Amino acid sequence: MGIRTPGHGPKRPNGAREAEILELLQRADDALTPREVTERLGNELAYNSVVTILTRMHTKQLLTRTPRGRAYAYAPVTDDPGFAARRMRSVLEERSDRQDVLARFADELSTTDADLLRQLLDPGQ
């Protein structure tokens, strides 16, 4: 459980607020300003905290931002499956033994997932 800090939302583990804000932005019909994010979070966080989180997420290339009035409006760079794919690619790129990693990954796929991957890699099959 989170610890309540006077005047602030409950203390959460690292990344939990980012995940919450990312999910909120993914559900939104359009890019949101920090004020809109703050309001949709039920004012759990101070405006400055939301700005800080959004700025960090933009720096991590999780969000795009476009000027809107005196603020920026933020939107996710991709959807949830896209973020999962980026994480998988990132792990692969960190490894020098790519072939071994991919081979192990393929060996551990279920038959259904292996068939799906074959179809995705060779659509004419």
Spatial gap, N to C terminus: 50 Å
Compressed to H and E, one letter per element, the order equals HHHEEHHH
Task: Write down how many β-strands occur, each being a DSSP E stretch of 2 or more residues.
Answer: 2
Shape category:
elongated
For the report, how would you describe the main beta sheet? 2 strands, antiparallel
Helices, by number, come to 6
Structural class: mainly alpha
User: Whole-number average pLDDT?
Assistant: 88
Strand order of the largest sheet: 1-2
The helix content, as a percent range, equals: 40-55%
What does the radius of gyration come to?
A: 19 Å
Low-pLDDT sequence parts: none
Q: What proportion of the residues form beta strands (DSSP E)?
A: 5-15%
Model description:
By secondary structure, this protein is mostly helical. It has helices at 16-27, 34-40, 47-59, 80-93, 98-107, 111-121, and strands at 63-68, 71-76. The chain has a two-stranded antiparallel ribbon with strand order 1-2. A hairpin with a 2-residue loop joins strand 1 (63-68) and strand 2 (71-76). Helix 2 (34-40) packs across helix 3. The radius of gyration is 19 Å and the shape is elongated. It starts with 15 loop residues before the first helix and ends with a helix.
